[in-house]
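Re: the 297-residue chain
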Amino acid sequence: MQLPPTVTPPTHVAIVAPASGLDDAALQARVSYLEALGCSCDVGQVTQPGPALESDVARAQELAAAMRSDASVILCARGGYGTTRLLDALDFAEFANRPKWVVGFSDITALQLAILKHTGIGSASGFLLYPSLDECGIARPRAGESLWQTLGGDFQPVRSLKCLRPGRAQGPLVGGCLSMITALVGTPHLPDLSGTLLFLEDVGERPYRIDRMLQQLWSAGVLQDVAGLIAGHFAGCHARGALDATVPDVLAHWASRVNCPAVTGLPYGHDIDSLVLPIGVPATLDADAGTLDLYPV
């Protein structure tokens, strides 16, 4: 695995919407954040109301153009839905000739993991134009700082994780939105997760659906050989009633099944001021100490 060249502002940013878009006012407010840092921005057609099926070709062409461009960063507008519909149309070999940071999370996980699978190139997970920037173009404090630290190769350690299963493991840090990882099972776009430190988050899923997705990954042979399991924030993933399992219940169950150290409490995911994590970097997880250390490639 490798990472794109390090980047610090001002730099050249291509803004695209492989999934859902933003209206013009919301877009312009957020582009102002980048312009204030001196960045030059190529803004694509990100103001479509949503990933209508008939827009697939246009969105794929625009993403492909950004992947071929001289931009050093591809920043995705938002998550939502639609990224998986584009993957079969992309020329990943062309991207490998001009590697650049792809920044996003949520639905964009599918693109980031497909790039990793086909090129071995990592990306930055945890930041989107929306919701990481507000309507005034102000970044969430941790997300804004973490974004430029990660793009600049300054990988910060994570502390105060909660141990679910003890142990210590090393491996490349890989992950993202659980539902998107599950959606890639059976496609040519899911990388081999054996030996990885797998980080996960999701939003708006009932705990039984979180369990079902983890079961699918297990049944597909994806989870058995991960080196470590790291749970982030599961926003709005509430049980239906007092007798239903909760997300902590589900995570504790799967920590008991996997043969590796497991932790929870990673400050990463939807509806929080998220860390921006470099997919593909070597890392060490110490579940007993509650620490995650990341290393330059």
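The chain has a mean pLDDT of 95.
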